[in-house]
Every structure is written in C-alpha cells, then in structure tokens.
Specification:
This protein is about 5% helix and about 50% strand. The protein is mainly beta and about 675 residues long. The chain folds into 6 domains: about 5-95, no CATH class; about 105-185, Immunoglobulins (Immunoglobulin-like, Sandwich), CATH 2.60.40.10; about 190-385, Sandwich (Immunoglobulin-like), CATH 2.60.40; about 390-470, Immunoglobulins (Immunoglobulin-like), CATH 2.60.40; about 470-560, Immunoglobulins (Immunoglobulin-like, Sandwich); about 560-655. Strand 48 (about 635-645) and strand 49 (about 650-655) form a beta hairpin. Keywords: Membrane, Transmembrane, Transmembrane helix.
C-alpha cells in the first residue's frame, strides 16, 4: 500500500464503484470522488481548455477483508506529448477496513522512534473495539503473522521490537513507540535529516545558493523530523563567516526561523541549520546549509597608489581602484579640469610612466553596477626639489639708512622647503638664521652687502641672493685745494669736493658775491687756469642726493707783489732800520747768495707785497719783499721774497729761478 496520498489527504474509508468516468475542463474543480473529501483541480500541461476523462478502476486485493484499489488518473490529450509525469498513480484503501501510516519513517540508531498510526474498521465491529480486547500487531516485510511479526502489544518476545502502543486503540489510534532501534530494523541505515528552505525565494538547482537584493527581507526556515529522543532534539543556526543571528523557533514542530534584512555583510555568508539529538551514549547531528548571495551597489570604493600618492617628479605611478559590489562593477577614471570633470579611461588601473607637475591634482575613480554608483577621490601629490627660488625685499633692496627692512625668501617645492639665511663675511659665508624672512628693525651701513637664501628639502637645494643697498644722505662732505688754498696770483688752482653718500651725490659750486650766493658750476672739481685777485673769497661745494644735502666751504687766498726800485744800499738801510735784530743775518745770507751767483748787480728791484687775510683783524697784516736781481748781460731776473719779521725775529726767504746764469 502506498500510504502517501492517504496520509496527506486524510482519507476516510468508503466503498467506491468499480468504474467512474468524470468529464471536466482544464482548471475546473472536480466534485468529491467517493472517499476523497477535498476538491481536485485538474490542470493539464500546456494550460489548454480541453475535455479530459478521469477513469478509476477498482482492483480486488487477495487479502480479504481488506480491499486495495489503484485509481489511475489518465490525462488524455492527443495534441500534447505527455511525459511519464502525466500519469499519476495513487493507491488508497477502498474498503472500510484501512490503516493510515507515514510514508517514510526514520529513526536514529540507539534512539526511539514514534510511528503515528490510525485505522478504520467496519461499523459492525466497532462495538467489539475495546482497549482491553484490542491487540496491536506490527509486521515487517510481509503480511504473514508467523514469519513477519515483529511486535505484539500483548506478548513481548526477545526477538521482537521493544516498544509499546501509546495510542488509544479503542479510539482507532495505533500510534506506537519503539525503543533502541538499530540498523537491523531497516533495509537502509537511517540518518537524521534537516530541510532548509526560504519563503518565496527560489534556490538554485543543486548549488543551494540564494540570490537576494540588498534591503529585502529574508526568512530562512529550518525543519526536522520529529524523531523520538529524550531530551528533545534542538535546532541551532550558525553562519560562515560568523555574524550575529536572531532566530525564532517553534520547538513543538521542530521548526526554526531565521529572519533578517539582507545587507552586503551577508553576501557569500553560508547559513547552517543543525539538529542535535542527545542520546544516551553520544549526540547525533544533522545539518543543512544555504549560501546567500546579496546583490548590492558599490561600497567601500577606494583608490590605492603605488608606490605612493606622494611621488617624486619623473617617477612611475599606478593608481588602483577597488570596490565591494555584487555584481562586479565597471571602473571609470576622471579628473577635475577647469571646474569640469574630464574622463580619462576605464578599467581598475591608471598608470603614469613618467609623472610631472602637470599631472598633480585630484583624481576620481567611479565604480558602477546596475544597482548604483560610488566615487573615491585621491590627491596625486607630485614632489620635487626647490625651483624658482627668489628673494624679495620690502620696501626695497635699496633702502634708506635707519629704515626697517624685511627680506622674504620664496621657492616652489614639494614638500615645503626649509629656508636658511647667510651673508658673506670676510670671504666666508656666515649663517644668520632660519625661516623664510630676515628682518632688520633699523638698518645701518654695516649691514649692507650680499645676502643669500638657501631653500632645501629632501629632494634638493637651491640658492638665491640679493644685494642690500643702504642709502643715506651726504655726510663728511669736504673741499680740498691743489696746490693750496693760499696761492700766488697767476697760479693754477683746482678745488675738489668729496662726500660720502648713497646714491651718489650731485656737486654744485657757488661763491659768495656781494652778500649773495652765486652759482658757478656743477661737478666735483672747480679749476682756475690763472688765478687773479678777483677770484679770492669763500667758495662753497654743495653735495646733494634724494635723501639730503650737505655743504663744505673753503677760503681761496690770492697772494700778490708790489714792485719798487731802490738801490741795494737803501734796501739794506731799510732792513737795518726795520729789522734791527735780524739785519746782520739777512746781510750775511745776501752776501753768500751774491758770491755764489757771481753776478754784477747794478740795481735791485724791490717789490713789497702786502697781503690782507682779514679786514677785521689789524694784526693779520704781513709784509714781504720780492727781490729781482737782474743780469744786465743776460737780461734775466731772479726774485727774492722776504717775509716781514716778527717782534722777536725775522725770516728771509730766497726764491731762485732757473733762468739765472752763473758767472
């Protein structure tokens, strides 16, 4: 007897006619057929609305009084190629004596098994069905009591199964429990089984993989057979890799549910349901698993740079994009250019064989699949040695003495440079300080010169220099006179003006004339080719630049002689009168000169030279005599100048001429 349908449809036993023919259309519900209490819906392949005949043939069983029948549902349609599945064979009990049993019974070796059982008898025998009078018999592999009996509820034998009927026989319940079952009680060794299935989710053929979309609700149900064990079996959930699980169980039915909202964290996670039977000597387990594949948009998109996102100019660089997504993403590289995104290429890598400064900037990797898009930026930092190093000076490299000056050094480099200031001193470089600025609060002349800024990072060094030019107004202005500021009339005289200043000064010469300043000329020199008395007086040199002016003056003293003719004896007399104390010495020197020159003098021209140094000082008057000795034969002269004697002594100066002839 095939008890599958009987157990499934809860078939009551009622007699059926030997043949029933029913006509119906595809999809039409059929009326209840005899003992079948549920409506049957006939659905033929191809979903065609055609007339179909259901024929049920009653076959008598040789085992009276139980009669078995095999109804054949013949689905006839000549236009359709029917497969073997088109013919369904159901076997049901067709008389009023019947029994309902599970189709398959499984038990664990060493454990117990409960067989649910119900039966029906003819109504006429129900009055004799009492608990005391009823006996339950179980037969295996046949129906002969002598050879196939394995259990008698009233007579226990050593070679019989150890068990008891737990159902009430008078209530037609023959449920039985068997203890300490083993593999000898079955044709195939029993194994505990677990069934794992998903509500409204299709599991792929044999792979046991579940495809779900992120954000959807997933319900995993685990069920196990209700096998007999004490304590009762347990169902547990686990996952690989491990994640927190929240489950609900219906222990009385041995069903456990695992509900969750799918996220990318559950992608490729294998969920396992395990049933554990606690036996006397050991635990027996069974399990089933399913792997969840979650489809989701790109997440955790990132860009890695080899060798580094900070790379030396001229190096090779590779950008690699990665993203977590299901299904796999497509990668697109782009770069921001002039405020707009410029697409560069596709693929997960972007390579620069020799990178330069024009490649620096922000790069974007876009990962995309049918569920969404995600970007990841990376800043490509190009490092290089210092270049374009320069020094700027505020307010200017040419600055007025006493001002505040700041030197600022700048350089293009990556990473940033360190600045060092130095100055050349006595042929060597003297380090001053570090930092990009060098400040002088009040600069002076000693700080003028060349200053050097050195910019340095780990990739190189570059220098820049600046000349600090300290400007100032004229100082130490002076006038020098060649040959002298006291010069003989008719001589050549040069006045030279000098001054210390930055920038260089312009010189202007002027002279005081009748109480007013008369400008003469410009330039650092003033020359008189043949000076005369009208040139005597005060001369002024003015040194001037944009920062100031300074003057220097000099008194030009013009010396000259007056000529008188006297005899040699008169001159000697005058000398004796005026210079009583020194006349002897003077006569002695004159005689020595006369003897050396050996000149016959007939007359002596005496020039008296008067010089006035200051009109306001009467004591400043000097007198001199110019003696000109004339050689009558040659017609030449020699001049002799005598200075006026002081109160204590007198000095006679003799000026010789190369034109005197010796005789």
């Amino acid at each position: 007897m095939d008890s599958t349908l009987a157990h499934k449809l809860h078939i009551p036993l009622k007699p059926l006619p030997h043949h029933i023919t029913v006509h119906a259309l595809n999809g039409q519900k059929l009326p209840a057929i005899s003992h079948i209490t549920e409506d049957i819906t006939l659905i033929t392949p191809g979903n065609h609305s055609q007339s179909t005949t259901i024929s049920i043939h009653i076959l008598d069983s040789p085992l009276a009084p139980i009669v078995l029948c095999h109804p054949w549902l013949l689905l006839h349609n000549p236009k359709i190629d029917w497969s073997s599945n088109s013919i369904l064979s159901w076997s049901v009990c067709c008389r009023e004596f019947s029994i309902s049993l599970p189709q398959n019974i499984q038990a664990l070796s060493g454990s117990c098994v409960i067989i649910k059982c119900r039966f029906e008898i003819q109504k006429q025998y129900e009055k004799d069905l009492t608990e005391k009078a009823a006996t339950g018999l179980w037969l295996k592999d046949g129906v002969k009591i002598d050879t196939h009996l394995v259990f008698n509820s009233k007579d226990t034998k050593p070679n019989h199964l150890n068990g008891k009927i737990t159902g009430k026989l008078h209530e037609k319940n023959c449920t039985t429990i068997f203890y300490n079952v083993s593999s000898k009680h079955t044709d195939s060794p029993p194994k505990p089984t677990v069934q794992l299935y998903v509500d409204q989710k299709k599991v792929k053929d044999q792979e046991e993989v579940l495809e779900v979309l992120e954000g959807s609700s997933v319900s995993l149900h685990c069920s196990a057979e209700t096998l007999c064990s004490s304590p009762p079996p347990t169902l547990t959930w686990s996952s690989t890799p491990r994640i927190p699980l929240s489950e609900s169980s219906r222990r009385e039915e041995l069903i456990s549910d695992l509900n969750f909202t799918a996220t990318h964290r559950q992608h490729r996670v294998t969920f396992t349901c395990t049933i554990t039977y606690q036996l006397q000597h050991q635990n027996k387990t069974a399990q089933d698993n399913i792997t969840v594949h979650v489809q989701y948009s790109p997440k955790n998109t990132s860009v890695s740079v080899l060798p580094s996102s900070s790379v030396l100019e001229g190096s090779s660089v590779t950008l690699i994009c990665s993203s977590e997504a299901n299904p796999a993403v497509n990668y697109t590289w782009s770069r921001e250019s002039e405020g707009q995104m410029k697409q560069l290429k596709t693929g997960d890598t972007l390579t620069f064989a020799r990178i330069d400064l024009k490649h620096r900037g922000l790069y974007y990797c876009t990962a995309q699949n049918q569920h969404g898009t995600q970007n990841s930026p990376v800043m490509l930092d190009i490092q290089y040695a210092p270049k374009n190093t320069s020094v700027s000076v505020l307010p200017s490299s040419s600055v007025l003495e006493g001002s505040s000056v700041t030197l600022t050094c700048s350089s293009e480099a990556n990473p940033a440079v360190n600045y060092t200031w130095s100055r050349e001193s006595e042929g060597q470089m003297k380090q001053l300080q570090t930092g990009d600025t060098l400040t002088f609060g009040r600069i002076d002349l000693k700080q003028r010169g060349w200053y050097h800024c050195t910019a340095q990072n780990q990739h190189g060094t570059q220098n820049s220099s600046v000349m600090l030019d300290i400007q100032y107004a004229p100082k130490n202005t002076s006038v020098s006179v060649l040959p002298s500021s006291s010069v003989l009339e008719g001589s050549s005289v040069t006045l030279t003006c000098s001054s210390e200043a930055n920038p260089a000064v312009n010189y202007t010469w002027s002279r005081e004339s009748e109480g007013q300043m008369e400008q003469l000329q410009t330039g650092d020199t003033l020359t008189f080719g043949r000076i005369d008395l009208k040139h005597r007086g005060w001369y002024y040199c003015t040194a001037q630049n944009q920062h100031g002016t300074q003057n220097s003056s000099v008194m030009l003293d013009i010396q000259y002689c007056q000529q008188v003719t006297v005899s040699f004896l008169i001159i000697l007399s005058l000398i004796l009168v005026h210079f009583a104390l020194t006349v002897g010495l003077a006569l002695h020197k004159i005689r020595q000169l006369s003897s050396k020159l050996k000149v016959g003098l007939h007359r002596l021209i005496v020039d008296k030279v008067m010089q006035h140094e200051d009109d306001d000082d009467d004591d400043g008057v000097e007198e001199c005599f110019c003696f000109q000795a004339q050689n009558e034969a040659a017609g030449t002269y020699s001049s002799l100048q005598l200075s006026a004697p002081s109160a204590e002594y007198d000095t006679l100066n003799i000026m010789g001429s190369d034109t005197i002839n010796n005789k």
